[in-house]
Each structure stands twice: as C-alpha cells, then as structure tokens.
Amino acid sequence: MRPQRNFLGVALLVPAMVLAQEPSQADELLDLSLESLLQVNVATAGWRATSLHEASASVTIFRREDLERMGLRHLHEVLNYVPGAYSARVASTGYEQRSVLRGNSGTTGGGLLVIDGQPVNSMYNVRPWGVVRNFPISMVERVEVLRGPGGARFGGGPSDEVIHVVTRQGVSAVEARWGAGGSAAAQALWHAKAGEWQVQVRVADAQEDRPRRLGVFERFGRPTPLDEKTHEETVSFDVAWRNHRVSAHQHVSDMTGYYSLNGNLSDEDAAVTDAAWLRYEGNAQGTELAWRWHVGVLEQRFVQEGTQLPRGVGPFQQDDLRLRGVLRHTVKSAGLSVQDDIGLHSLTTGIELKEGRVDRAELQSNFLQRPPFTFYGAYRPTGLDFAPVGASERVFAVFGEDQWQLSETQSVVLGLRHDRYELSGSATTPRVAWVWT
C-alpha cells in the first residue's frame, strides 16, 4: 500500500535556488578540535543547554560527519554505536524496530525520540521508532543520545534513553544516492534569509527493496514469496523571526511484504505510519528572568493490513480474506519555563500541559464476517473499534531544577518533576547529579 503523495518528484523539481549554495554554520563543527567539541551545547541533559563537557548526564553525540562516515542507512542504527545499547528488528511482527539500552530487553517502551524539541512518541506510542521508523539521515545535523532515565526532563516514558535529533539549518542543497537492491534516496533543502526572517525547507524521498523471502505458510500449498519494500517520505519547514520559530513536519513510512515470524500470507501485507506535527516556540530575555514557551500539535496515524485466510482456504475462492486496522490519535502540548540566576544558583521552573485523544480506531475487512458471508473485494468498516474512540487523557506537570556552581570545576544539579495523570494517578521524579570537569 503506497501513499498517494510523491515527494521525490517535488524534490527533483525544486528550482535552481539550490545552485547558489549557502555555507552552513554547522559545517564549522567539522573543523573543531576535541577541546572545542566539548564546548558544543547539548539540549538533552537538562532544562538549560550546556556544553558537552559540563552536561549533567551521559550523552553521546553524533555529528553529520560521523553519520556519513559510518555509512548508516537508517537512523535507529546509530544506537549500535552507543555504549551499552543496540537496535534490532522485532522478528515477531517484522515491521517494528526495538532499541535496547542498559540491559532492558526492549519488550517495553523505554525510549523517547525527540526531533527539534518535539517528542514524537508519547502517551499512545511508547517505542521511539514506532511512529518514525527511518528519519532521513541526510536531514540530520546532530544526534544526541542520553543514556539513562530522562523522566525528570521529559516526563514519564523515557526510562532508558532519549534520542534527540537536530535537523540541518541554514543549508541549500540537492542530494541523491543510489545503491544495490533497489535502494534510492533524494532530498532537496532550501534556506532563505531576509532581514530578521529565516526559512528552511526540507523535502526527502527514499525507497528500499530487500531480498525475496518465502513466507511460513507453505502448508496451505501456496509458497508465499515476500518482496519487502519500504518507502519513506518527509517534508518539513521552519520559519524563524527574532526569538520566535514555527516548524511543521510530516513523515510517512510505508512497508509492504514484510517478513515476520508470526507469518505472512500475502505480499500485500502492509504497515504504514504517518506522523505530522506543528510546533511554535519562543523566548524572551528580561532584565533578570529568561522566559521560554512552546505550543504543539502532534497527529499520528497507523494503518496495518494483513491476510486472515489465503485464497482457496476460506469460504471464498476469489481472493485473500483481509483485515485492515486504522488508528489515529492527536496529542496537544504546551509548556512555559522561567530561568533566573541568583548568585551561584541557576534556577529553572515551569509547567507543562498535554492532552491526548483517540480519534479513530477502526477495523475494516474485505468480506462480511458473519452470515450471510459476502466477499466485498474492497475494504469496508466492520463496525468494530479496537480502542475506545474519543477517549482522552490529560497530563499536568510542574518541575524545578537548580544548577549550583560549587567551584570552577564542580557543580551539583538538583531537580524535581511531578506529573499528574488524569486517568492513572501521578508520578514524581527526582534528579541529582554531580559534575566534575
């Protein structure tokens, strides 16, 4: 099942604006010494961006140069280069990726994926790669991996790791690659600046064909050749003016003919994920206080198609008897934080609000499942929902953090976050760190 949009064609038709390429400020990172790299700011360890040298957590950073040198094709593979972590495909389902860190088996969601400050998996999807399976590496400027719990910073969920992806800014370019096995990718980036306004547009399209496999249902007398194909489409743009920034993003991942130990009956079995979000963030600096705020809307859509009975086994001979599930939910979020420096103390306090809602959870089939059994051919609603449509949950959080500078080489970080869940009680997460540089 393929999405109807074709961003590759759009990418290749981007006008000659990219011929006059602007140098990226981020390219300066490639020429930094080791001492200078330690001063690169990271935004994952705490509420305040700090240098890697002073970060109050174990953070691994991968620059764009590192990602290109490692030859990675999928973003989740970066975890294989993080101490104590790895990423693997879930063999039972075939279409999921699992990240494992700190001895966790990966059967539960313990990671959080953040793209340019926007948490992508939250509330309704607990695994970091459940929504965005393969974010284009060519769009990535830097990846920060926080090894360990991130609940004091991001709330409930990230008990194992936080993967923060920072996209490329200030770049105009057209890039394309081809590889063995039918893999190909293309992207176009465009940056423009006029006065205090800046615009960054990114468009990418990628596809990959994997070696043919045989399904596991030969006992039906129908060996099933599975030609697994993946198709990824990504479009995003940022508009910035002074201390304000609006970003929009959409990522569609389509996998057909995937192989799983649970068994596939058809080359048309498909799993599609679609994530889209709109986010506004701003900041203001007063005489003593620094204010930061954000408002965002995230929509996630999941579509999974599978064969219930292959052709020639059930009561109909025309075609496979197939089921399709469609799930869509929306997460709205907002936050406000205030920072103040008092003597040796750097204080940060704030609040966050989040509301999630199930908009659709529909089960469809291409046949009537009760007498009189009828073969439709096309999918029709069964009248069954596999999740309560309209169900929602609100989360309210308050937090505080104090970075206490004991000396030029030592500091202590004390933090506390309290999350109140409308349906499932509350959780309080403390944080204590000692930094010796």
Question: What features would you describe in this structure?
Answer:
By secondary structure, the protein is mostly beta strands. Helix content is 5%, strand content 53%. Strands 10, 11, 12, 15, 16, 17, 18, 19, 20, 21, 22, 23 and 24 form a 13-stranded antiparallel sheet that branches. A five-stranded mixed sheet has the order 3-8-9-6-7.
Query: Low-confidence stretches at least 5 residues in length (pLDDT < 50)?
Result: 1-30
Distance separating the two termini:
53 Å
Beta-strand share of residues: over 45%
* Radius of gyration, taken over Cα atoms and rounded to an integer in Å: 24 Å
Quick summary:
By secondary structure, the protein is mainly beta.
Please tag this protein with its features.
437 residues, 53% strand, 24 strands, mainly beta, 5-stranded mixed beta sheet, disordered N terminus, single chain, 13-stranded antiparallel beta sheet
Secondary-structure blueprint:
Blueprint: H1 7-12, H2 34-37, E1 41-42, E2 50-51, E3 59-63, H3 64-70, E4 85-89, E5 97-101, E6 111-115, E7 118-119, E8 140-147, H4 151-154, E9 161-167, E10 173-178, E11 184-194, E12 197-209, E13 213-214, E14 225-226, E15 229-241, E16 244-256, E17 270-285, E18 289-309, E19 321-342, E20 345-367, E21 375-385, E22 392-405, E23 410-421, E24 425-436
Parallel strand pairs: 6-9
Antiparallel strand pairs: 1-2, 3-8, 4-5, 6-7, 8-9, 10-11, 11-12, 12-15, 13-14, 15-16, 16-17, 17-18, 18-19, 19-20, 20-21, 20-22, 22-23, 23-24
